[in-house]
User: Fold these one by one.
Assistant:
Number 1:
Amino acid sequence: MNLSTLKLRLLNHLSQVLVFRRDGTLVASCNSLADTSALEQASVYALFPMLDSIRELFDQLDQSAKPIAIPAVDGPMLGRPGVYDFEIYGHPESPELLVCLVVDHTALYRRLQEVQQERNLLLLEQAYQQRQSQRQPDQV
Amino acid sequence: MDSTKWISKKIAIVGSFAVGKTSLISRFVEGKFPESYVTTIGLKVDKKTLEHQDYRLDLVIWDIAGQENFTKIPHFYLNGSHGVIFVTDLTRPETWEPLKAQMAILKGILPDAAVVLAANKKDLLEAGALQRTLAAYPIQPEITVSAKTGEQVEEMFRLLAAKLIHIHESLHT
């Protein structure tokens, strides 16, 4: 097994590639994260309202354009809960097609969320204490 | 014949952390108020259809994680937004004291977007304190709301809907 195949095998369960037409019709999917076999010819825009809401940005996406990145999307990916990074590319071989790469970073983002939660609560407490101490002199 | 016009718009909810962005969306979309604070990481997306005037608006709501410093808000979350609700917390001056600079940044990123400035947590202030607090705001919020009681929450989204329709009509007529 060469390194590329090994790498693919190790990372396969963390990502999914969807290929769709510019009108949203799903053309192909690798089904690594979620099975889309029952969704043949479905609209990616109906499956992902997030993508539908920014579809006008895709007009500028061609093979040479920088991908549109939407990291840390917290919500189900075709019914599979998690926190995912989305990247949308122009298809390297066909201008009619777009490619959506979805990467599952749930474990990383959930840990970050815990840290952020602790930090936010601490900042709220500090700000509250500061307001209280500023009020004290008026009350004396 | 049904003359309802159907449009879909991306709206972003922004503001400092813990001002109640997620709670406002939860109140609007599900009619519920989450009792405990859970920080949003990255982005959450919700959808709700609102009928307003002779329009049916599919609002795709991007709940963007609050930043302590608004200059750090990632532009990729805002790109393509047709409307923005900027949420502040009436009880925490640090969320509205830098409003002028924050609104200027927002206008720089999204010059053509409809914007509503909202002040949340109205339920925590009695009338006199609310009046004094609003007098201290550097820019007057267009609406004061409470995610907890639900007061004015739908009106806040309707206010944005009216602005979105106005912009939509000016571009398409």
Number 2:
Amino acid sequence: MSERSVRGGVGPLVLGIESSCDETGIGIVRGHELLANEVASSVAEHVRFGGVVPEVASRAHLQALVPTLRRATEAADIDLSEVDAIAVTAGPGLMGALVVGLAAAKALAVALNKPLYGLNHLVGHVSVDLLDHGPLPSELAALLVSGGHTSLLHIRDITGDITELGATIDDAAGEAYDKVARVLDLSYPGGPVIDKLAAHGNPKAIRFPRGLTAGKDQAKHRFDYSFSGLKTAVSRWVETERLAGRDIPVADVAASFQEAVADVLTVKAVDACNYLGVDTILLGGGVAANSRLRGLLAERTEAAGITLRRPRPALCTDNGAMIAVLGAEVVAAGRPPSSLEIGADSGLPISTVLV
Amino acid sequence: MSVVLGIDTATDVRVGLARDGAVLASEAFESTRAHAEQLLPLVQQVMATSGVAFSELTAVHVGVGPGPFTGLRVGVAAAITLAEVLGIEVRGVCSLDVVAAQWAGTGLSDEFVVVADARRSEVYWARYSADGIRREGPFVSAPSEVPDLALAGPGAQLTGRPVGGPIIIDAGLLAASDALPAVGTEPLYLRRPDATVPTTRKSTLAQPRIAMMVAEPPEAP
Ligand SMILES: [Zn+2]
């Protein structure tokens, strides 16, 4: 596919607000051009709890809201009255966190008299690549891997035709990272720290299980994932070694665990492309910043003749730009705006792009 | 000249509007579970029916509780965003002070208490002098700890004692009054977030539990 760059004032000017978990993100785009992407994270406040505490996150969103909005408008060098639309994450995510962003977005929409678009956070993770690599092909697969979600998607229209081919049946990949990090007495969040350690370890040191890859799982769970067994296998292995009085080869455990995750994610992603007959796959979500997943997926898609698209790591974690650019696509597609009465939906299905 | 929007979501959804201290509107959407959905539509409706444009607003007054946190944050998020985008002042006030101001000046000669529902069998309350000045609080406590004084406020009935004063929060007065003390725009949470720091690692080994009890506790690498 040729990469067409849409730069230089083409497309609607959209402000996007994201507050579904622990990042308060406000992004501003013009079509596929990124003008601002300001993120305030409360991750440091959650570290000692070993996971995101919803009430702590919600309080932090409220505090970060106006300063982040101010930084975004300054960075984009626009006046808010110029925007064509306000986009906001309507779900899925933490209810108390989502409503902070939703209230702010509605306030902007009524005060500026602009249309409001309540959007799906997960689809935002996929659409953020538009900022890096321009328009999507007419049909593609996407592998979405984040703290709360692990899904394989079939996308025919990012603004309205997305089906989930498979998903995790227990833990998300990101959760498995956090849990394994805890087993290894590493800090939260587990993803970056395990990725770093794994670089110094041997990925073949320990053979951890690959969930739902056995022949018997193919009929029912060909495109589904399971990380709960892997997580348990890692903690059993570590505990057994500790009880035996042996030192834990932390880097080897990290590398072997990470290899198991990346292996199963990429094998099924390539299988999905072949099954769907698509020649492009997009990698999105916070865990898409993981070096081994990026590397192995690049290797395997290339071998299979599949084009891999992946946003730069800085755009993979939660941010407002992904919501803004999805908003710009939705506006450009002529979709009707959301009602001012929409609520947040903590369990919004990925097939619902716009509420 | 002042045109002030008042927002309070400490109980249900309440929106008021005032011009030069005179109430133009005081409306409510009477649901405690629809703040995110109904607040901004109500703001838009109050502005439209009063014939006031957003560009005419000179300030936003917002009740910052105490009250249930999620609803409270919807009101505060909307208020501070409106103020930011319109380039106007936002003043956060204690929601209980609004009820106190409603009752004060009606010939009261004694101190009184304004009470709100804090859920989990507790109440928020503050004590006021007869002229509506807050003397103590707001606190969160069991209803039995509320002082034995005249009662007002949306949670007053939870004390099981007779209620003498207003029970709803009047967002019209919230908008109209410049006398309510500013308390900042951080919600009056009064409670710390529910969260526990994990202490012990859960064992995944069913069998060697006994061995663990006699062995030295495993050291972190
Ligand atoms: Zn996310």
